[in-house]
Structure formats: structure tokens, C-alpha cells
Amino acid sequence: MAFTLLQRKKMQQGLVLVLIAVLFITASVLWLGFFQSAPVSLGEPQGIVGPQSQSVEVNFGVLSLPLLQELNTPVEPVQEPELKGRSNPFLPF
């Protein structure tokens, strides 16, 4: 499909507008992201009660129970499969 000179000119104008829009968006993001100061903190909010911190204590003495000492590993040993086929499968017959 052959483009006429008028169609090419319209296409170039559209692409120039898209390029300008992309450059404007990129410049805006960079300006707002890097060159603006950090937001000012208003301090700790008053009158809001947050969750109280809790401590967790782990009782490792449970692991020394005789019942747990009798347990074995639940996994059988891995058996390697026997070799099948040729040593180099890429060699021609």
C-alpha cells in the first residue's frame, strides 16, 4: 500500500505530537519525583490508640519430649534411576 505525500505528512505530525506528549509526561514525573522537597510530617496523630506490642515466647522444651525423640525421618532415601539409552544420544546410528 503506497502512502501519498499528504498521508506521510499527517502521520509524521501525529507522531511528533505523541513524542511531545511522552516527553512532557517524562519531564513531569522527573520534576515531581526528584526536584520537589519531601512532604512535611505533621507529627504523631493525637487520640489514636494503636495495637499494644506483644512478646512471643517459644517453648523449645516441647521438642525434647520422649515421644518426639522416637520419630524417624518421614522420607525414604532417594534411589538413582538406572541408566537407559545410549551414552551420547546425538550421535547418528
Question: Could you give a quick summary of the protein structure above?
Answer:
The protein has a domain of 34 residues.
Describe the protein in words:
The chain has two helices and no strands. It is mostly helical and 93 residues long. The chain has a domain at 1-34. The longest helix has 30 residues, at 5-34. The protein starts with a helix and ends in a 24-residue tail after the last helix. The mean pLDDT is 84.
Which SSEs are present, and which pair or pack?
Elements: H1 5-34, H2 66-69
User: Stretches where pLDDT falls below 50 for ≥5 residues?
Assistant: none
Averaging pLDDT over every residue, what do you get?
84
How would you sum up the major sheet? none
Identify the overall geometry. Answer: flat
Number of strands: 0
What structural keywords apply?
93 residues, mainly alpha, 2 helices, 37% helix, flat
